[in-house]
Amino acid sequence: MNAIFLMLAGLGAMALGYFVYSKFIAEKIFRLDPAFRTPAHEFEDGVDYVPTNKFVLWGHHFTSVAGAAPIVGPAIAVIWGWVPAFLWVTLGTIFFAGVHDAGAIWASNRNKARSVGALTGDVVGARARSIFMIVIFLVLLMVNAVFAVVIAGLLTQFQTAVIPVWGAIVVALIIGQLIYRRIIGLLTVSVVGVIALYALIWVGPAMPLALPELFLGLTDRAQWIILLFVYAAIASLLPVWMLLQPRDYINGLQLFVGLALLYGAVIISAPEVVAPAFNTDVPEGTPSLIPLLFVTIACGAISGFHGLVSSGTTSKQLNKEPDLRFVGYFGAIGEGSLALAAIIAATAGFATLADWQGVYDAFGKGGVAAFVQGGANILSNGLGFNIELSQTILTVMAVLFAGTTMDTGLRLQRYIFQEWGSIYNLGWMQKAAPATLLAVGSCLLLAFGAGGDGSGGLLIWPLFGTTNQLLAGLTLLVITVMLARLKRPVYYTLLPLVFVLVMTVLALLIQLKGFYDQGNWFLFGLDLVVLVAAILVALECGSTLARLRQGATERVEDEG
To answer: Where in the numbering of this chain does the CstA N-terminal domain appear (predicted)?
Structure first.
């Protein structure tokens, strides 16, 4: 199988999904109204609520939801073969992720930009809201703590990426001023910003930087983790237009340039996919394809974290309601195209099947390393770039996306503490600074609570896939209930949510048995908590849907 076929088939199907399916969903299901006054205008404060150009907002949303996950998940899941990964990424993007992401923005936009967890109280009930908020907190805790470890590891391993990664923050600050002050047009800003980013990438290999291997008893990786959280705390308190929006926007453009380079190299070099279509000789210890494929590949198909971004920050910046189709659904298309690139790099970027098997010798192998290694080979063969520069381009791409997700994740966690303060009448917790300190403190407690290297978040990472997909299912439940109350068709969200919840609960049960067999009682207990939470919220939402259906039936009978 030639990789060109995978590229054309995947991108073609996603394009069709955007131009046809998303248009149907926007017009017939969500019924987007250009006259609706969005919360960005209603509560405009210049900090969190800022009406934003849809292209800039798309950049913020897309890079916030992308992170490293659409690279890691697909590049691990190809161990089952490239066909299952390809089908789930392509179909999941069109029928699951796009509807989920756009739907979460729509639901929040119609409820004063409240997070999907907070508005659950109005849509479903207070008990469901309380459980939902705990699940959301766990997901954000995992994302922030673990992405810090991932970024720190990449900065330690690839020292040529340090200048481009941190230099991008300076570029974003300048671009934010240029856009917000309307000093020069968006097109000019975009071109200058992309040129500046790639100039930094070119400088990176010539000026590698590293922190001291040991400082004040902290390893270089632990030092990076602390620096990342200090940066993320500052970024979460700054107005969104100053750093978050421009950083995400320019990173979104940078990704598309990177994808254009990678896909262009695929067309020129026409690499063969050396990985098997269906791997019947998986390494010992590899779990079953069903249901684990659907929690291993989350971002790139459907991910609960997207609902948090959609309802947490994106909905607060939506200028006009119809913009959410481009921002939300096309944002999912962008992430799907990144996941597709990860599949191609991890299956066609190796010379032989034996080379591929050497990397995928156990479940969990591959990931970012396979993407960087395989993608660098494709860039080198197709465009003639040297390997070091190719690796730097792809490493910076992965780190910048992980960084933007961490920026947004910490801001979202701050919102969660503020919403808890509002729910329980704790005035001090509703303020930005104390809520940010609580968010950073909880992440650092997890990161350093199990040792001094800051990798404590990895302890609960095995549960991220299932908890994250549970969150996606619960978000679809809330959207479905809202549609049912408005007497609109629910099948386009109901069918995806049933599939996601069934696969997630099965995966939780499999993991539960695995943790029991290993005697890992900490993860066993946490898995049990998440499983019970899933069942309780699903029952609450199910009973709400049943009441709505019964009420509709009674009205029809009365009218008859």
So the answer is: 2-347, 365-507
Cα separation of 373 and 194, whole Å?
24
- Whole-angstrom CA distances from 494 to 20, 272, 430, 501 are 20, 39, 35, 11
User: In terms of Cα–Cα distance, which of 116, 114, 108 is closest to 139?
Assistant: 116
Within 10 A of 43 (CB to CB), how many other CB atoms are there?
12
Average pLDDT score over residue span 470-477: 87
Q: Read off the pLDDT band of 240 (50, 70, 90).
A: confident
Kindly state the tokens that stand for 309: 């971004």
Is residue 318 a contact partner of residue 40, using CB atoms and an 8 Å limit?
A: yes
Alpha helices, H only, 313-427: 323-324, 330-348, 353-359, 367-383, 387-423
Distance (Å, whole) CA 135 – CA 540: 15
Please give the CATH number for the structural domain made up of 3-559: 1.20.1740.10
> Where along the chain do its domains lie?
3-559
* Tokens at 65, concatenated: 């939801």
What is the helix (H) or strand (E) element at residue 301, kind and residue range? none
Convert the pLDDT of each residue in 71-114 to its tens digit. 888 999 999 999 999 999 999 999 999 999 999 999 999 998 88
- Taking the C-alpha atoms of residue 295 and residue 509, their distance in angstroms, rounded to an integer, is 13
Across the chain, mean pLDDT equals 86
Q: Residue 176 in contact with residue 242, Cβ under 8 Å?
A: yes
Residue 351 exposure: Cα atoms within 13 Å on the Cβ side: 3
Question: What is residue 556's predicted lDDT score, i.e. its pLDDT?
Answer: 43
